[in-house]
Design a protein that fits this description.
The chain has 254 residues and is α/β, with parallel strands linked by helices. It is built from 9 helices and 7 strands, in the order βαβαβαβαβααβαααβ.
Length: 254
């Protein structure tokens, strides 16, 4: 299994913090040149870049809901870096909108924002990057989905639906892209110990969340990142279309 990514260009969305930051850190440590995407927080993205091994990394900005911006970002990255070997669709949003207490206007806005960011954004970005990969003759795309796609998200149904859609998209595109030597996978974490989840994990429901796993904890970002690097490495082509659970046995499916 080759874990040396020297000479490879890896684009990661939502790379300024959390899981995305750890993914780019591990790729850079293995020699990859990184394209770090951010939406709003340039300072955090630049801080992430400053902490990476190597010095040939690129920071790019785009609102993934803006189809023109997505295409422009890929064009800029491919021109600056020469190619894109690996794409990790990591960026996403999670908004609570329980049906019993949410107004219809807020419900509609949550659905539109969530589907646009978590599903349409990765679909459009994957299209542009896959076309680049098809021209170069190889590539890998890894989508970060969620345990919630399978077990349900009763207080954030749009999130569960968006991640289920991303799983289905991953499997459809795996079939479409394999003849072009481009392979697509999904990684489905449960709760992960990030700054975004900190308030929930430190609150009154934190212990209950941790107890969902027989390990009595949630995942560390590094554990998710290691699975992403495994899939991006050589020798995993026949796993294309696979959805890898990283949830500490907190939800088991057959």
């Amino acid at each position: 299994m080759k874990t040396d990514f020297s000479g490879k260009v890896v684009m990661v969305t939502g790379a300024s913090r959390g899981i995305g930051r750890e993914i780019v850190r591990q790729f850079a440590a293995c020699g990859a040149r990184i394209v770090l995407h951010f939406h709003k927080n340039r300072d955090a993205a630049e801080q992430t870049r400053a902490g990476l091994s190597g010095n040939s990394h690129l920071v790019v900005q785009a609102d993934l809901c803006d189809t023109d911006a997505v295409g422009d970002m890929v064009e800029k990255a491919a021109k600056a870096m020469g190619k894109i070997d690996v794409l990790v669709n990591n960026a996403g949003v999670h908004e609570f909108h329980p049906v019993a207490t949410t107004s219809f206007e807020d419900w509609r806005q949550s659905w539109e924002k969530t589907i646009s960011t978590n599903l349409m954004g990765p679909a459009h970005l994957s299209y542009h990057v896959a076309r680049c990969m098809m021209k170069s003759g190889a590539g890998k795309i890894i989508n970060i989905t969620s345990r919630g796609a399978f077990r349900g998200e009763p207080d954030a149904p749009a999130y569960g639906a968006s991640k289920a859609g991303l799983n289905a998209f991953s499997q459809s595109m795996a079939q479409a892209l394999a003849p072009h030597n481009v392979f697509m996978y999904a990684v489905a974490p449960g709760f992960v110990e990030t700054d975004m989840a900190a308030s929930v994990l430190s609150g009154p429901t934190g212990d209950a969340i941790r107890s969902q796993s027989p390990l009595n904890r949630v995942a560390h970002p590094a554990e998710v990142a290691r699975v992403v690097l495994f899939l991006a490495a050589e020798g995993t082509d026949y796993l294309t279309g696979g959805i890898i659970d990283v949830n500490g046995a907190s939800y088991l499916r057959t």
